[in-house]
């Protein structure tokens, strides 16, 4: 990682002050650090640069789908259209040379370095104290999210919390998982105190809120099997009344509804500039349907996932398609099986550039986390049933006799399995599946049952070989 990572991180300063994103920052017109952190406008430009790094295609672009959902049993990449390295991940045949890992690793550390610079430099700016603290809190939230993504993927990783400038003879070893999680938790607790409950200025919607911080913290605690704190944080989000489920499941995913009442934190994509669009719509679309070029993608639902839904579950109707009716009335049949329709956009910005946000966390996820944590604490309590049944009730789409029916009378183990299955139906193709299976200890069993020869080593991804090559302080994960 030595020269490679730190040169990337230092170079990110140049990008930090020169980039623009959906949050309407006014980027600085010069790059010297001494001239870059003097005013509140500089602070705003800097934090917007951190948000901008989320939108990197190697981070919260299609790579997040490849590393999370494709690595599960719900989603696969078709061999005749997808990248060879994506298919290697799908089939657990990857090595440390796979560029998806390297691209993800470096993109996440680029964001971390931008966040570190905000955390280090913004407190020294003479500006409104509340805004200054909020911006630092946002940077801590984003740094915590980045490290959470890294540690779940790779295990031990270098913990870098200071600005990286020196790229000469630098060796950075991996820090243990526990230390990484301590930093993640502290960053989130710090951010929780200073970020607002909501934003009212249109250009600021999409920034981190206290609900977003609490929700991610609930998931961090859940991953660490701290059921008490996970349940408590999830309940704080629920009791805040700041979020509700969309009454109609399909409305969650319409680009026109993004940043709606169910969306707690999303990576912002749009047509503000054509290059600010997302690639999800095309990559999940049936060939000959994507509006700009009648192209299509190679990311599809597995047959097993399609068959897993209970008869009548409205979520299957919304999510899984084998044909698409175009605006001119033409119906295009899939020639390659089931596709996922969550990311469809009728009016994208351009080829591989659509308006869909990426939902990092939404309210249904919080309800299911709450149910899971309560069950692990005390078995399936009334509140645990109420939380999961709220999600299931919407899936009936107003038809009282439809599936899925409310759950009742389950044992602790049955309820645990029911929550994991519910997360599959509710949150499929949204970047959760690998992490859910790992967290619950089900990954190897589920992947092997799908016909893929997963091994113990596949519980972690390999440290990218490019990083190993330039940093002798890094030690590879076992088996790679």
From TrEMBL:
**Name of the protein in its database record:** RagB/SusD family nutrient uptake outer membrane protein
Q: Where is the SusD-like N-terminal domain?
A: 63-222
Protein origin, superkingdom? Bacteria
Where is the RagB/SusD domain positioned along the sequence?
A: 299-480
Q: Which InterPro entries match?
A: SusD-like_N (IPR033985), SusD_RagB_dom (IPR012944), TPR-like_helical_dom_sf (IPR011990)
Main location (coarse class) = membrane
Subcellular location per UniProt equals:
Cell outer membrane
In the UniProt record, does the keyword Membrane occur? yes
A Pfam short name: SusD_RagB
Q: Which family does it belong to?
A: Belongs to the SusD family.
């Amino acid at each position: 990682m030595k020269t490679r990572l730190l040169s990337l991180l230092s170079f990110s300063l140049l990008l930090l002050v020169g980039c623009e994103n959906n949050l309407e920052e006014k980027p600085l017109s010069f790059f010297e650090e001494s001239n870059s952190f003097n005013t509140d406008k500089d602070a705003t430009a800097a934090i917007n640069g951190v948000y901008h790094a989320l939108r990197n295609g190697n981070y919260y672009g299609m790579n997040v789908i490849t590393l999370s959902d494709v690595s599960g049993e719900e989603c696969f990449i078709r061999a005749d259209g997808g990248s060879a390295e994506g298919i290697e991940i799908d089939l657990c045949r990857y090595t440390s040379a796979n560029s998806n890992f390297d691209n993800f690793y470096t993109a996440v550390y680029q964001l971390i370095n931008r966040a570190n610079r905000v955390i280090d430099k913004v407190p020294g700016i003479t500006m409104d104290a509340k805004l200054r603290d909020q911006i630092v809190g946002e940077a801590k939230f984003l740094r915590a999210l980045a490290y959470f993504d890294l540690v779940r993927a790779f295990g031990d990783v270098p913990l870098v919390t200071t600005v990286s400038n020196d790229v000469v003879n630098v060796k950075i070893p991996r820090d243990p998982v526990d230390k990484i999680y301590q930093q993640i938790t502290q960053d989130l607790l710090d951010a929780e105190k200073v970020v607002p409950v909501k934003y009212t200025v249109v250009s600021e919607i999409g920034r981190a809120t206290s609900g977003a911080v609490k929700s991610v913290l609930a998931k961090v605690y859940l991953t660490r099997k701290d059921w008490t704190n996970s349940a408590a944080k999830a309940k704080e989000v629920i009791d805040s009344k700041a979020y509700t489920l969309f009454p109609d499941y399909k409305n969650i995913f319409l680009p026109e509804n993004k940043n709606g009442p169910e969306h707690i934190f999303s990576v912002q994509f749009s047509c503000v500039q054509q290059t600010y669009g997302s690639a999800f719509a095309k990559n999940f679309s049936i060939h000959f349907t994507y509006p700009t070029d009648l192209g299509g993608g190679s990311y599809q639902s597995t047959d097993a996932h399609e068959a897993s839904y209970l008869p009548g579950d409205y979520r299957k109707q919304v999510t899984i398609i084998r044909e698409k009716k175009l605006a001119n009335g033409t119906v295009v049949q899939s020639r390659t099986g089931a596709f996922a329709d969550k990311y469809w956009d009728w009016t994208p910005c351009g080829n591989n550039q659509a308006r869909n946000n990426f939902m990092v966390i939404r309210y249904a996820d919080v309800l299911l986390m709450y149910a899971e944590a309560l069950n692990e604490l005390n078995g399936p309590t009334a509140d645990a049933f109420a939380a999961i049944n709220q999600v299931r009730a919407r899936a009936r789409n107003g038809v009282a006799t439809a599936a899925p029916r409310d759950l009742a009378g389950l044992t602790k183990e049955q309820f645990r399995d029911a929550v994991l299955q519910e997360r599959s139906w509710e949150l499929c193709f949204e970047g959760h599946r690998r992490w859910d299976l790992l967290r619950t200890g089900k990954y190897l069993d589920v992947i092997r049952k799908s016909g893929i020869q997963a091994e113990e080593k596949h519980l972690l991804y390999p440290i990218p070989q490019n990083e190993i090559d330039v940093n002798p302080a890094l030690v590879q994960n076992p088996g790679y």
